[in-house]
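Might you be able to review the protein record set out just below?
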Amino acid sequence: MKVVITGGLGFIGQNLARWLRGRDNSIELVAIDWRTGTSHQEHALFDVVVNTCFANEETLPLYKDVDAVIHLAACTTVQESIHDPHRTFENNVEKTERMLEYARINAPNIHFVFSSTGGAIIGEHDGEIHEEIAARPISPYGASKLAIEGLMSAYQGSFNLRCVSLRFSNVYGPYSGHKDSVVAAFCKSYIESGTLQINGDGRQTRDYVYVDDICRAIEVVILKKGQGLYQLGTGVGTSILELIDVFQNIDPDRQIEKIFVAPLSGEVRHNVTNCSRIEKELGFTPTIKLQDGVKATMKWFQKTNTKR
């Protein structure tokens, strides 16, 4: 099997490569990523690493004669999209359309697996998020992901291109040192100062899913040739204040200082995922509890910090 991972040198890409290598060492892995300055160990996970944009003329031929493309590369944050919505649309939507159009003409048998998002696409919603809820994104980031899902639906419906959209909830885990997502930011702040910054009142909830569960879900989708749309999380909502309690329980003797600042614009208040569709249709259920996942993530950050 040959798999191309866009954003392969990023957080989820690195974990996914390690996961797939551990399951089948004969798999051929290609990483496409603009990031430079990465280590030999990161590159060694792949048979080929191409440091460039995932949709330029040099890159597109790499999608020919592959079994699956795992499309992780994107402008990935709400705040980045609010600061520069045009760049987010150009990078996420226009470039992905180039990939789909190339596949339509040159690689019609490809399996296109897209990393989407649940909360940012749906917008404000009380209760569990599932695939049947009408999407009302409140940020350019969420709108860009929804636009890509629309393109994929069109290419599947009109050209029979096999596409699947996985709406990730809040993914966390090792190899996220360059990320500013909540768990990664908390790990870095906890190690450096024991001070954790809270945007708003801390009662906003997120569905935190450990990266190994994400990797296993992607593997299941590839092997079972999943198509369509799946929400992917744990089904458990955790407030920021509850997440801080998880950090406190890792080291009960260390006092955590909480600093409250203004809430961020464009961020949804609550995000809890209903994962029943992927469980029913593909047999996938998450297994990693938040306490265990945060402890493993913290251990990686501490080890990485020690090496500096």
Notes: Residues 85-106 form the longest helix (22 residues).
